[in-house]
Task: structure prediction
Amino acid sequence: MSSHKHKDHGKHDPTPNQPEEESAAIESEKQPEAVAPSELELLRKEVAECKDKYLRALAEAENARKRMQKEKQDMIQYALQNVIVDFLNPIDHMENALSFTQQMPDEVKNWAIGFQMILSQFKDVLTNNGVTPFVSEGKPFDPYRHEAIESVSTPDFPPGTIVEESLRGYSMGDKTIRPARVKVSKLPTPSQDDACEENCQSEESNK
Result:
């Protein structure tokens, strides 16, 4: 019996406070460490800088997208303009040929009426795409809209006025796609007779 009592005394009883200590340790691990005001301010600055960089990158990406879209539209517009300009010369030739319709025989006039309808359809296509001819005669010379092929001495027009158009100009929207070929007025130069007359008059006045 004494041996059983001795064995009982050798056992260790569990400490009743051990679960509470483990719980307190876990709670202490969950609580964040205190951040110094200087470190908090530094973190705020870093967040603000990151936000600013993000907004800048977003704006640059949007600008790049718009720029690429505009370049694509400009390329399409440029290709369309080139195709339309290539069609203008045949249209001019057809229009010039049909201008003599009234002088043709009756049989040819019937054919000419059909070609007039085709020409009208071509012009409708140009109009639907924003391509329109512009009037040049009587207008001041504009290097962005006109190509001067000759200067004409005349007192009937102010200098720099278009007196004749040899090739019609076309615009697409607010852009000139084919300048008009024109003759531009200039001041007439005094002839030798006029100069002699002026000299004679000045000599008589001196006498």
Remarks:
- Residues 192 and 198 are 10 Å apart (CA to CA).
- The first helix runs from residue 2 to 10.
- The longest strand covers residues 146-153.
